Amino acid sequence: MKYDDIDRKIIEELIVDGRLSYVELAEKVGFSRVAVKDRIKNLKDTGVIENFTVTINSEKFGKNVSAFFEVDVEPKQLQKVAQNLADNPNVASVYQMTGPSTLHMHVLVEDFKMLEVFINNELYAVEGITRVESSILLKRFKSRIGYKL
Prior knowledge:
transcription, WH_DNA-bd_sf, 36% helix, 21% strand, WH-like_DNA-bd_sf, elongated, 2 domains, Transcriptional regulator, AsnC family, DNA-binding
């Protein structure tokens, strides 16, 4: 499927404010409300737009520590470990990375004590993990939300 500048403009406007109405989007891109609605439906149907959601400021929601983990896993356990981690409510995202069965994981917890509890009681308890390396986020400058086409 080929996408044009109008599709890109619609997506850019939705990135800024996903609550814009079809009428508001139509005014911004210079098309009719019906044309914008059809284009958004097409973008959803083809998988360009996966879903509409809200972005939460984790700190304002009580999750003050953001940590990233590189988790090496026994190859035959990769899917099971990835699903186990993805099901954990403290885990914001899990990605399979290149390398020897490596998962990249983002974790949000209330404080450093809860991070310790997560690491010792929830992460190290997962069978199949062979190595864990972590980094604590100090400051966010940009996230995927700011992605421009």
